[in-house]
Amino acid sequence: MLIKTLSWNIWFGRYYHDIITHLKNADADIIALQEVIQNLDGSDNVAGNIAKELGYHWKYAQTQQMEYEDKIVSWGNAILSRHHILDTKVHALSTGDSRRTALQATIQIDETHLNVFSTHLMHTHQKPSELQEQQAEALVKRIPKEKSIVMGDFNALPQSNAVKYMTGVLQQTDTQLDPTWCVYIDGCEECKLDQLIHRLDYVFTTGDFKVHSFQTDYSKGSDHLPIAATLEI
Asked: Model's pTM, two decimal places?
């Protein structure tokens, strides 16, 4: 059974129509999104709007609240799927002002149940961070040893300890590790990059998956590029 997965930090959906265009063309079975926002009353969820247009099932989990376009909104991670989502869990990877989470969904495809994660670790401006490493360690402890796919914006370079923790227990689906950030200079007020220099986004799986292909796609829909892996279980 072949499954196409896609992961993308969509930068709060500010270039919504570009995001929709790319996701329609990508035609993925399972999509992990990061930096998804919704109103505090649960309305106007960007992932929900995308799922409605694509005809997908979807789940969202808040990480924190923030000010965006002169109002306070919820932001977090989401998972979209063509297949039925049986249940979800939210894992806190760190707390307080630096709270980060991972959304886990159990997705049923035929008789197979997949454990799919969408996560977003803290941005460290490409510098070593003990807190980011703690977040990665906390995530690793929550990943089932079989039929697991972990996708997201790890905000970590390939040589970082956070990525090493992940590859210590999971397989890296991409061998090229092309850069995925930064498309827009206002992607980070401190870094001020408008060139694709850093690899920050990844798809990891347990060893029971075979990787058929991996691609880093170009899009102006976000400050991050979308990445996609076609897997066989």
From this structure: 0.98
